[in-house]
Amino acid sequence: MAGTTEHVAAVTDADFAQRVLASGRPVLVEFTADWCPPCRMMAPVLAELAAERRGELDVVALDVDTNPQVQGRYGVLSMPTLMLFRDGEPIWTAVGARAKRRLGQELTEALARMA
């Protein structure tokens, strides 16, 4: 699946609630698909970010083609969509690929607003 690496785990409809909503720390979810070129561009960015922020937040990828329930629940229509969850709620959303520096700044700002 696009987006999964050693630092970016795959989540599914079946384990989304446990691994994302019930997580004790923030979780960045990439809604992705194998057919999505910008999603493939984001894979190394998310892997680096996940490695750098290990312990601060988790980064996971959800394949929308095989996991339509979560995609539908959050109204995700475009890939990649990035959604940051904290305490079971989405606190920040962005659509489209972005540079690592920009994504890092956006996540830092989103987390600071919710602190």
Automatic annotation (TrEMBL):
InterPro entries: Thioredoxin (IPR005746), Thioredoxin-like_sf (IPR036249), Thioredoxin_CS (IPR017937), Thioredoxin_domain (IPR013766). One of its GO terms (cellular component) is cytosol. Coiled coil: none annotated. Disulfide bonds join C36-C39. Residues 1-113 form the Thioredoxin domain. GO terms for molecular function: protein-disulfide reductase activity. One of its GO terms (biological process) is cell redox homeostasis. Pfam families: Thioredoxin. Keywords: Disulfide bond, Electron transport, Redox-active center, Transport. The keyword Disulfide bond applies. Belongs to the thioredoxin family. This is Thioredoxin.
